[in-house]
Amino acid sequence: MRTEEILAAIGTGLWSWDSSSGMVTFDAEAARLVGLPAEATVRSGEEVRPRFHPADWNEIDGIVNFAIAEDTVAEARMRIMDEDGSVIRTVRTRSKPVPLDTPGRHTYVLVGILQEVAQPPDANAAQTPLTGDWRRSREAFLLDAGRALAEAGSTEEVLRVAASLSMPGFSPNGLAVFGVSGGRLTVIGHHGHNVGDEKPFTDMPLETDYPAAEVVRTGQAIYLESPEEYRRRFPAAWPLAVEFGRRSWAFLPLISSGHTMGAWMAGFRHNVAFSPDERSVLATVARMLAQALTRAGAADNERELSLGLQKAMRPSLGPGVPGLTVAARYIPTGGGLEIGGDWYDMIPLPNGRIALVIGDVQGHDVRAAGLMGQLRIALHAYAAEGHRPDAVLSRASRFLAGLAETYGLTDGEDPSDETRFATCLYAEADPETGTLDVARAGHPDPVVISVDGTAVIRQTAGGLPLGVEKDADYPTTRVVLGPGETIMLCTDGLIETGGHDLATGWTRLRPVLEKPVDDLEELADALVQAVHGPGSHYTTGPLADHREDDIAVLVLRREAVRTRRTPRRRSAMTIAQAEPERIAAARQQLRELLHDWADPEQIDAAELMVSEMSTNVLVHTDGDALLMAEVTGERGERRLRVEVADTSDELPHKRRPGEMASSGRGLVLMEMLADVWGVDPRGEGKSIWFELYESAEPAELAVGSAGS
Fold first, then answer.
1. What is the pTM of this model?
2. 189 has which bridge partners?
């Protein structure tokens, strides 16, 4: 016997429903069960629909969508009706939805069985639909809907969630959310309509005889169970509604904090009686929707404010400068308004130079962002007046201290709390000569990257952070960039994020700075990636893929002259009489300059000689010392030349100190440790120098000897 005959013997038929074509296929037994002639047939969905109770047919969509999502069988009871609208039997269907691969469409074929079951007592067309025990209850639906609406973070997401809700037993095929603006009704979002269908409703006076407008005016829900009721109650609006081909409508107020903020419309293609249970479900969804829209509206306003702040306060580089290439990055902390206290600027100056500014206002909140904006304006104004870097920072410090006194910009409510301050580095750059006059207010030192890729922290004189003292002094240090050299300025967030201190943070960044790159934009991206990217997991310190502090980075390169010059790196530093501790900084700077030198003992010797020469100037003269160090040549055959110059005409002379003497051995050490050394008189003062060779005879000296 065939399968169909076996199933027919037990009162079971086979059917399939193709949602893409709308065609339903029955075998003979299935056709009999739905009230058709007992023969295999293929009918359109429009022909079959009148055989089922409207509420049951409408519910199939929700049941099938749930079965597809859960990869299970769709099961339900469905009432079969005759032409007079009477229920003749109840059938149980168990069907498996098979999704179809239709581009851009959600289609499936429903394949299953129909089987007659005992009809519940007093079953009639007015009863609610009967479904299997597997279907989620209405309470579960409301829990799911509430969770989805609560998780929606924007108005667009709320509307998308509302459109996807499949209400148990009476899912609407069209939704619209109305809002109120300036005494007029507007459409916030809609679903189940073609683009442009909403235009007649987008700008409607609240006095209009339209259900949504009346709901907003009265705060009472309106249920229209048939087209006749709609036409009778709202004759003026009926011509707008008739085009959508719906049979029932529910208009509910959206109420938040006791205020009617809009209306929600649910439209149905079939007549719905809107039983008390159905009205309860709709009212609950409307309340949840109103709360979700209120939260989303507040979040949208916050995002709009954040974007406005970012647009107004986000740092900018301005126009390019001939002879210089500049790149920058600003990364705010991960939370809040995505705007903080870090900034950078490039300011054209009246003398044809440019000012590079980078700074960090204490804090990561809105107050820090506002204070940063005011401080940037002040710095722009002082720079435009033509002041030198030290004067610009002095005036900015007084400005910030004055703000704190005027507006009480402290960290807490107690007036004794520490005043908010800002760190800043201001550099006036000359594109023609490559000189930068740097003034620093409690900010990290810049880093200079030589042509051969060596990165060295360029120690500069500095003062207190801005706003700490009104009359703070900010000495200026001159840094000279050779052709092709780069300087990097950053805030402490780039160095210390991830639990690093200044030392370990520098260790993490140095390989990135010394990696050869032609494009400064790539370098700026690589620096940020080293702190926030996956690579930060494998560097010194804890995991650093989260944002703890704002980051501002500014890199500037002096364009290289295309020549065949020998690669070189150099550094310069002034050691003042009043700052003998700068000798230690000079030793550290020299060690960084020689970080890849072949012989570590030569590095120690160079440090010792620098200490002796610098100390000699400070002890035996009344002026400052100028230290200059330069490395030239190819690796393995390089030459180090160090000079210490002063303004004294007194030349040093070699002495023979006794065994217990505490001084007088400087030139003796030079003679022992240096490959070559000397003292050169100058017009004003003198220069004492020494050279160390990485090999026995540097290549450039050998070439010079052969040529002579």
1. 0.52
2. 177
